[in-house]
Amino acid sequence: MRQLLYIAPVIIDFEKLNGVSKKVLNQYNVFSKSYNVTLLSYGPDCLYYLNNDFFETIALDQANRRFKMYSFINEKLSVNNYNFIYVRYHLCDFLFINSLRILNRKASKTVVEIPTYPYKKELLKSHNGVVRYFMDFSSNFLLRFFVGRIVTYSQDDKIYGIKAINTMNGIIYENVIPVEKKQFNTKEIHLISVSMTVICHGYDRLIEGIKKYYDLGGDTNIIYHLVGEGEEIKRYKDLVLKYGIEKYVLFYGFKTSGDLDALYEKADIAINSLAIHRIGLQTESTIKSKEYAAKGLPMVSSYAVDAFSAQDNSKYVHQISADETPVDVYELIGFYNKMYENADRNITEEIRTASEKRCDMSVTLQGIIEYFNTAV
C-alpha cells in the first residue's frame, strides 16, 4: 500500500476533541482506506506521531512546538519513503519551505490544504497577526516549487500560482446520530450553536435580536443553547447580563459525546456563522454546518451553506443579511413555522439525506485522492 504523510499542526486533545481535531482524525481515517497514513500533529504538550502500527509522543523539551515539528520532519521523517504528502496550512515561513524541500526529494506529490482563504484581513487585526502575515507573504511565493495542488474551500482556481482542488469541509456521516423528528410547538423554539467561538461567528447578532424581540413584546419562548468556549464567550455573557435575558440564552461550555447529543435533541434550529464579513469573507465552509446537517437541523446563516445545493439552501437555510443588524426573531419564527408546521413532513430526514451526498467525507476528499492516484 502506498505511503501518505499527513502533517497537521493542530493540537489534538483526545480527552477534549474539538471540531478541527475531529476533522483531522476523520481525514486520517478516510485516507487510511486508500493509503498507509502516518499522521504528525500536536498533542497538548508534545508532538503526536502515529499510524495504524504505532503511536508515539515526542516531548517538546522546552522547544517551541512549531520548531520541534520542523526539526522532527527534517531529522527523522526525511529518511522515510512517502509517496504523497498532505499538509494542513498554518502559514508559511522559510522553515516550512525548507521542510517541504527536504520531503519532496522522495515524495511524488505534495498537497497543501488552506482551511480559510483569504486570511489577510483576519491576520491584520492584531500585532502578532501582522508579523505572521508578513512572514507568510515573504515566503509563500516559493510554495509553487514544492506543492502540486492547493486544497481550498474558496472558489479560487489558483492560489500562489498553484492549481486548486476546490472542495468543502466534510464529516463522516455514519459517526453522527440524527436527532429525532421534531414536534411543532407554537410556544417555544430552541436554537443551538456548537463551536469554539471567534469574532466571525457573530452570535452577538442573535443575542441582540433576542433582546430586541422581547423589547417589542415578543411572547414566544426563544431558548438559545450556546455550546462551546473561545475568545468571544465573555463578551456574549456580558451582553446577556446587560440585557437581562439570562433565561433565554444558556451557556454550556465545551460538550461532547452523549452530553452534546442530548443538547442537539432539544434543538429545532442550528446557528451557523453570522458574521464572516468581519474577516473579509463572503463564503465559508464550516465543520459545524456539516454536523448540523448530519443531525438533520435547519440553519440560520449569513451566507449560503455549502452543505446544500442552491435549491436546498432555499428550503433549509434562513439566510440573513451579511452586516451588523440584529437577527430578526420574528422572521426566524416564520422560518421555524415553515420547517415544522406540516406534521407529515420529516425535516430531519430530508436535511440529512440532501446533505450527505454532498459533504460526507468520502465525497469531499475524492478530488484529492484522485489527484494522488493519477499518474504523474
Description:
There is one protein chain. This protein has about 375 residues and is α/β, with parallel strands linked by helices. It has 2 domains: about 180 residues, Rossmann fold (3-Layer(aba) Sandwich), CATH 3.40.50; about 190 residues, Glycogen Phosphorylase B (Rossmann fold, 3-Layer(aba) Sandwich), CATH 3.40.50. Helix content is about 35%, strand content about 20%. The strands form 2 sheets. Strands 4-3-2-1-5-6-7-9-8 form a 9-stranded mixed sheet. Strands 12-11-10-13-14-15 form a 6-stranded parallel sheet, sandwiched between helices. Helix 6 packs parallel to helix 7. The longest helix is centred in the first third of the chain and has 13 residues. It is globular and about 70 Å long.
Task: Describe the structure in brief.
This protein is an alpha/beta fold and 376 residues long.
